[in-house]
Description:
Elements: H1 36-47, E1 51-56, H2 61-72, H3 80-84, H4 86-90, H5 92-95, E2 101-108, E3 124-127, H6 136-155, E4 160-163, H7 171-178, E5 182-183, E6 189-190, E7 198-205, H8 224-228, H9 246-252, H10 259-265, E8 268-270, H11 274-277, E9 302-303, H12 304-308, H13 312-318, H14 329-341, H15 349-352, H16 361-374, H17 377-388, H18 394-402
Parallel strand pairs: 3-8
Antiparallel strand pairs: 1-2, 2-7, 3-9, 4-7, 5-6
Amino acid sequence: MVSADQVAAGLPSPAGRSRAGHDAGAGLRRAGLLSLEQALRGRAAALGFDLCAITSADAPAEAGERLAQWLESGAHGDMEWMAETAERRAAPKALWPQARSIIMLGVDYGASGDPLATLERPDRGAVSLYARRRDYHEVIKGRLKQLAGFLLAQVGGGEVKVFVDTAPVMEKPLAQAAGLGWQGKHTNLVSRRFGSWLLLGAIFTDLSLTPDAPEEDHCGSCRACLDACPTKAFPAPYRLDARRCVAYLTIEHKGQIPREFREAIGNRIFGCDDCLAVCPWNKFARATRDAKLALREDLSALPLADLAALDDAGFRALFAGTPVKRLGHARFRRNVAIAIGNSKNPRLAAALRPLLSDSSPLARGASVWALARLLPAGDFSALAGKALAEEKDVAVRDEWAKGHT
């Protein structure tokens, strides 16, 4: 990602011309030439973006109010960085006062087949669709920089900043304001062309570009996404409680996953696609044709026993270049252990025993919970007697004590 305080490579303004407020289209509105906005969309498509639209840096004001209410409710869990960057995240001009226009870009990451198919194979690990490929941050960031450079070259000046996902930018409200789609009841962006399968990026600029019309909400009375959530993370339409969300619990949450959600997580070891996959607008979606974001088949339906056996080096090698690698080995093992505990397959208990001596209490604690679900009570009690003699971590000892309860 390019952070908020980094400016992508630009061109100096011509002598005597102020960059801020410059009419970016004037230089191109000559006979026989496309407008700047049309040229920008053409270049975006050539770079691999599926959607490109423009909104004002003044929009949308209500997004900041919703963010404040969400943070006040504590629904962000332990994502403290959301609260720490709230002021800059609430409004584009709070992040960069010189911003006048925002170019929102979308990249399709849809796939053929059922994205939830692995959930029917409890001895396999389910990885979210976006993570079974090259890390999109790197792919999109490079393209954004190229598109930003093209923009500046067309007008002979200006400034830009590019953002991909992890910067304090509210991409989804901005994407709706630009007309790329609308925020569905699952709070993710929905496109009439690509359903729920879009990755987003943004270019902020001090140039004045013609904005596109915002997209309207087309969810209607549908609540498929709300009903599909395995942990009931939507207290109301358009509201997400991240503390209950499988994606948050398996990716963002740094501690032990609360016991009340472990069974519902099933065999999801990184993220969750349930609310996205059931959206009726996906009937218009297609498999991505972007070679740089092609699915890695070796990351589909991975055997849980093999995943539990991965040491740190093996984990890094298998998931090199993907979003999964950022999770770290300890939390990965925590997730795998919970998935094994949900497998209802006692033969997988053998894969958990080595994790009882793992250096991370996250892996040890989750393994204890899983073994309690797979082993007969007598076998578990015998194992507990030996383990408790050496276990020093209070949380792990508590997992042993709770056992089959």
